[in-house]
Amino acid sequence: MHGINLITLIWTNGDRHIPCDYRIYNKAKDGLTKNDHFRAMLAAAKQRGFVPECLCFDSWYASLENLKAIRGYGWRWLTRLAANRQVSKDYSGNRPVNTVPIESTGTIVHLKGYGLILVFKVDTPKGDIEYWATNDLHMDELTRLKYTEWSWAIEEYQRGIKQFVGIERAQVQLTRTQSNHIGLALRAFLRIEHHCYHTGTRWFEAKLSLVRKAVRDYLAQRLYTLQTTAQLLAFIKNENLRRRIHRVLKTRHMSAKIKCTM
Questions:
Q1: How far is 103 from 129, CA to CA, in rounded Å?
Q2: First-to-last CA distance in the chain?
Q3: 129-178 per-position pLDDT tens digit
Q4: pTM of the model
Q5: Do 28 and 135 fall into the same domain?
Q6: Which residues neighbour 242 within 8 Å (Cβ) at sequence distance 6 or greater?
Q7: Boundary residue ending a domain (144, 163, 182)
Q8: Percent of the chain's residues with pLDDT above 90
Q9: What is the DSSP string of 96-151?
Q10: What is the mean pLDDT of the chain?
Q11: DSSP state, 236?
Q12: How far is CA 92 from CA 28, 86, 110, 211, in A?
């Protein structure tokens, strides 16, 4: 099954998650790659006057064209490098970064086709090795760690838009309708984030408070009254079908009652 690939540019301070721009990846229709969308969002951010403290992104977007575009905007960036990216230490020739002696506190190397960068070697809890790189040659390990933790906000954001605004739950098939649903879901998430910012609550509590209020308002003034099972069955004229439905409903009721008493 093929899903919808959503590319999002968000602002964060390590706590808040503010979507600033997004693109829907559909290369078969518009011919644009993920990197094309990435640069388009950065260009739009620059035009809108954004001045990020640090731009963090996944290694997928760490191409030379993207890095040079960010450098052209005068922004600081931080990303992970693939283990086979070609770098040179002390101009001794280009080699894969995983074969070059890199310090955990940072080592300045020359990235092929780009220029000087600072690379940190990080041992992960799972036993893997990651190479984090930045164009800020004076960045220390604590600053790198802060931005690394902030970069995880995109993962929290992706979970939030799925769990709390139902961005994946549109029961439609048309592309335009899906796009409309995504846009409205992101606006709903932004409203929840705005509410959480001003009230000091979390996403789950904010959504639960909306549901509770809706239930209280409905119980206080019911606009619709659901018919009983007997009333619904009265509309079914086929006696055998009516008995069969009644048997199924009774079985489900007993099953639910048993689960509640366990």
A1: 12
A2: 39
A3: 999 999 999 999 999 999 999 999 999 999 999 999 989 888 887 888 88
A4: 0.77
A5: yes
A6: 233, 236
A7: 163
A8: 58
A9: EGGGS---TT-EEEEETTTEEEEEEEEE-TTS-EEEEEES-TT--HHHHHHHHHHH
A10: 87
A11: -
A12: 43, 12, 10, 63
CA–CA distance, 138 with 3 (Å, rounded to integer): 41
Distance, CA of 63 to chain centre: 21
Same domain, residue pair 123 and 15: yes
Cα distances (Å, whole numbers) of residue 28 to 24, 25, 33, 179: 12, 9, 10, 16
The kind and range of the H/E element at 24 are strand 17-25
Task: Report phi then psi at 256, rounded to 5.
Answer: -65, -35
Does the pLDDT at position 24 exceed 50?
Answer: yes
Q: Which amino acid is residue 3, in one-letter code?
A: G
Cβ proximity of 71 and 137 under 8 Å = no
Residue 251 lies in domain:
229-261
CB 122 within 8 A of CB 142: no
Tokens describing residue 33: 């790659």
Q: Residues 6 or more apart from 82 whose CB is under 8 A from it?
A: 59, 62, 97
- Nearest Cα residue to 57 out of 122, 164, 148: 148
